[in-house]
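#struct-pred

JT: dropping the chains for the assembly here, can someone run the whole complex?
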Amino acid sequence: MTIATTLEEACAAMADTPEAALLAGGTDLMVEVNHGHRSLTDVVTLDRIPELDGWERHGDSLRLRAGLTYAAMADFDLAQLVPGLAQAARTVGSPQIRNTGTLGGNLATASPAGDTIPVLAALDAIVELRSEHNRREVPIADFITGVKRNDLRPGELIEAVRVPVADGPQEFLKVDTRNAMVISVVSLAMVVDRANRQVKVGLGAAAPVPRRAVDAERFLGDLIDWDGDSLPESETVNQFGKLVMAAASPIDDHRGSASYRQHAIGVLARRALLRCFGEVSR
Amino acid sequence: MIVDPYVLNVNGVDRRVVDGHIDESLLWVLRERLGLPGSKNACEEGECGSCTVRLDDEIVCSCLVLAAAAVDRRIATIESLSVDGDLSDVQQAFLEAGAVQCGFCTPGLLVAIDRLLEDDPDPEELTVREAISGNLCRCTGYAKIIEAVGKASSVSQTSIKSNHG
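RK: done, full complex below.
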């Protein structure tokens, strides 16, 4: 077992022992281990590497290091800059889980219900990957390749995620049976980017991979009064909801039916729009 | 796979773990190897909070911590709350409020509430509810637990006031 304290050490250990499991917060890995779905032969731990902890701002870009916990994502200073991510982080699990689970772990697990993922999709996040001798960057849309599948190659780890600081409101909404300790039935992230006159919508648990509601985004971007402050018409809100619903292709499972999910996505879309732009004009 | 012997700092004492397997959770090691059965094992997937401990002062589910990776960290379990047999304010408040029924969730709740009161000695009810949202109790309906937190915080508020004259 390697308790790595530098990225170099972690990458070297991964190159030497390709069978080793990577351990960050452990909130996904240990569930598999405890239930006997995965046996460990070797482990490389990532939770004591200062290069994986914290975040920094470079101009209009934020670099969020992969070891950032959900609790840290919901911290005030970061929440000011990327409020959608803070809202999503606040909905994850429980205080115990938020103290340990990480941004990098959420991406590595690549569950369709991963709570940070719709936000990262709406922000067009870039994932920074690193191995012993190589570094590369992959857009979030290409990083997650299927249900619990990602683009990580053997020996590679997630070093950081870059997102823009957007000028405009953000919302993260999630449908669940209760507030804590649940896996999202569906979720939706909205990012308003005034500078680029764009509204971006990421959907969670609505498709195998992170899905953007591109038709709805285009429709809304053209109808928003970017220079004035007139509010969206109720007809616009309803049409937007329908277009977001059309972007989803959810499944039936024990948490909800596809038709319920599709309906809920439309509700969340309309609600996010109203929260970002205010009441509807009549 | 057996790992090399390692040392865990539990409740301020260094404890050596010999012949541990690599895949053992901290919860397992506390209960089965170190004789500390106060942390309870129910779900083993971070859902129930019965196994809550402090790891470097933050509450975590010990079932989701790999024991051998917890070396050089400060681990504090429910066993650390009572000193020399005297119950802590929160423990006493649980008894007085009748916040314990079957008792299985109690250790995890006590650790979570003890941590909450350290940051916020007089929390609002919503704060309490969020702080214990990772601790499932299927007996009480939480009413008595919330009441107990109120009692504990008023006890500690009184002692803060009396300490400051």
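JT: nice. The interface with chain A takes residues 1, 3, 22-23, 25, 44-47, 49, 52, 58-61, 63-66, 68-69, 71, 112, 130-131, 133-136 of chain B (CB under 8 Å). DSSP finds five helices and five strands in chain B.
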